[in-house]
Amino acid sequence: MSPPRKHSLTLGGHRTSVSLEDDFWKGFKEMAAARGLGINELAREIDAARAQDTGLATAIRLEVLAYYRDGASREKA
C-alpha cells in the first residue's frame, strides 16, 4: 500500500487536508460517486458523524472499509 498523501477538502467553507493512502482516496471517491455526492459533501457527513476522539482521516478510512465490507457481504448472499 502506498504511504499516505495529503489531499485537500473543504468542510463548511474551510479548507482542510487529510492524509490518505491512494487506495483509500480512490475508495472514498468511488463511495461518494455511488451515493451521488461530491467528496466534500461526503467528508462533511463523515465529519459530522465521527466521534470527537477520531481524526477525520481515520473516520474516512473506516467508512471506506465499511462500504466495501458491506458490498462484499451482499455479494456472498
Helix content: 55-70%
How many separate domains make up the residues? Answer: 1
Distance linking N and C termini: 29 Å
Q: What's the average pLDDT?
A: 92
Query: Which sheet architecture does the biggest sheet show?
Result: 2 strands, antiparallel
Domain Ribbon-helix-helix: 4-68
Protein name: Ribbon-helix-helix protein
Organism: Rhodobacter maris
InterPro entries: RHH_dom (IPR027373), RHH_sf (IPR038268)
Short description:
With 77 residues, this protein is of the alpha+beta class. The protein is built from 3 helices and 2 strands; from the N terminus they run E-E-H-H-H. A hairpin with a 2-residue loop joins strand 1 (5-11) and strand 2.
Task: Write the topology of this structure.
Layout: E1 5-11, E2 14-20, H1 22-34, H2 39-49, H3 56-76
Helix pairs in contact: 1-3
Keywords:
77 residues, single chain, globular, alpha+beta, Ribbon-helix-helix fold, 3 helices, two-stranded antiparallel sheet
Task: Walk me through the structure.
The chain is 58% helix and 18% strand. The mean pLDDT is 92. Helix 1 (22-34) crosses helix 3. The protein is globular and about 40 Å long. It has helices spanning 22-34, 39-49, 56-76, and strands spanning 5-11, 14-20. A hairpin with a 2-residue loop joins strand 1 and strand 2 (14-20). A two-stranded antiparallel ribbon has the order 1-2. The protein has a single domain (5-76), classed as Ribbon-helix-helix fold, CATH 1.10.3990. With 77 residues, the chain is α+β, with helices and mostly antiparallel strands. Residues 4-68 form the Ribbon-helix-helix domain. This is Ribbon-helix-helix protein. Pfam families: RHH_4.
